[in-house]
């Protein structure tokens, strides 16, 4: 408890900054309802409640995007993660959050030099034959510089911003507290799982902060494409890799957004769309390890219709079961099997309170909208959007690995259609789905799986008598315990305790009033202003208690609005 209090006090300045930004962008009601203002006011920090008029012209998602940008790197990254949650947020929010700035003003190189030289263990002129202090790019977590090794290779040096981890750790503590408050005060948002989103975000951003992890991802993807000359993955120079420094080959290519340059270089855009789609589909359906952020800034087009993938801080992992479920879902939609499609969604969402019959009916309606359409007429983006909208209606949430997958597929579909308006990702995916199914139903693989399951079943049967004896003994001794987790129980207990305190004070005040009235009728004894002194003092005490009680109830009621 003492540690938590210390953290809260330590983070007050950051909390004040965040609350001020939220108020300025029109989220003062949320600040008030969450009770953040009470904590800040008790700490002597005042808040300016004026809502900036110029922000009133912006839509709600636009105001949230602007607020996240002003709150700094952690919240920008959180917004970027939320922009992948197509299962939780409507399209207008996804669209707005996807525009969160990825580039920020660079730091002067002299602010990075001490950290870089300390991490690499020497002065730059001894570590590199040449080093360009002008940044190639700057983002919220790191910035990138071009350099040349003494062995002659041109490389990029990615350097983490100094002290960024302290800011992010403080923000994560505050996010966790805010998530719990949201769950208490906005029960209608429970299906969004705020605490789980913050937990997953914390894991994701810590992985992204560790550049050693990013380099491992790079090497793994390079190994997966070692036999495909069309896909280029930068080589990692491990002698220069540290937690805060990452050094890879510099790759010269055409920005995927610069279509004029693509055409001027004589590259066929349809071929580029096919190569990019084949690469992503292989990652997803066959390897189960994919680039989770394949936007234009992370792609370069090279001669001979090769594509270079960059920046592997955010990757997705799809275990075999997930890949099978994805194939089952696509097959069910094409085969008009609403029952199987609904079962897959329920498997993804876990245990939830949902009407399966209504879900199947809605899924059947969704499938019917695509019935009779040719593959070329189908839009993967529209289909995934419709599917996630159905999940939101039934308060079903995707597992984190699948949110990254859906986002990657939508991005892939968009890039493919930009290069080729007739791009058909379903036709492109068909051979990969077929190969995935062949691997899944390979007799040798089925036999191995059956043998493993048989061994597990035998283990369960062998240990069943022992487990039953333990349960029986626990029942006989009265030692059987059931752990029941009731949501909001602590909060409810605090409210009941406060209400009982108010009730007790009210009873005491009432008793004083009755006793004072009796004393007033008794003759004799000391008097004040001609009235019995003890009766008069009882009335004064009861009035003070009643006044205090009314003020406390008023303040508590106002804090809920």
TrEMBL record:
Q: Where is the ABC1 atypical kinase-like domain?
A: 100-343
Q: Which domain of life is it from?
A: Bacteria
| Ranges that cross the membrane | 499-522, 528-554
The answer to keyword Transmembrane applying to this record is: yes
Going by the UniProt record, its keywords in alphabetical order are: Membrane, Transmembrane, Transmembrane helix, Ubiquinone
Under the heading InterPro entries, the entry gives:
ABC1_dom (IPR004147), Kinase-like_dom_sf (IPR011009), UbiB_kinase (IPR050154)
Q: Name one Pfam family in it.
A: ABC1
The entry sums up its family as follows: Belongs to the protein kinase superfamily. ADCK protein kinase family.
Indicate what this protein is called per its UniProt record.
Ubiquinone biosynthesis protein UbiB
Q: What is the lineage of its organism?
A: Bacteria, Pseudomonadati, Pseudomonadota, Gammaproteobacteria, Methylococcales
